[in-house]
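User: I'm putting together a teaching handout on how sequence relates to shape, and I'd like one worked example. Could you take MALR1 protein from Agelaius phoeniceus, show the sequence you're using, and then write out its predicted structure as tokens right after it?

Assistant: Happy to. First the sequence, then the structure tokens directly below it.
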Amino acid sequence: GSPWNNCDFETNLCKVFPEFNLQSSWIRRNGRSGMGPPYSDHNGNESAYFLSVSSEMQSSSAALRTSVFLPTDEEHLCQIRYHYWVSQMSRTLMVGLQKLSEDTVTNIWQVSGELRNQWNVNTITINSTEKFEVIFSGMVETQRQGESVAIDDITFSEGC
């Protein structure tokens, strides 16, 4: 099998995100949904699915939380690769790490909107001596049409 556990959102079942159906702020949709950009997934496919933050939120954040991962070791670091779209400055995407012994989420990566409307890709590496969860948070400061935060094709290495 593939060394990466891939979550492309083509089906609703991503085992990595057990609470996804309870998390109404992230919406699983495609480019034809009539909900504004992006109008395709990162491969340019209008009918392929991705997640975006609901444009109906006036001002808040949407958190997508993984299941609990085991501690990493030197041979098996946890690498997470994902495609993201953040349009306009009032949009932010953050990736956070929560260790099970801590109440707080540590921000390990974030990007705020760029005026270029395009999909980008990033890979983060997580090194944790204890069990942990990863949280993808999309934030909306002000509500304007034609702006969005979206993620697609999140893949997790064997070390996760």
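A couple of points you could highlight for students: The radius of gyration is 15 Å. The chain has a mean pLDDT of 85.
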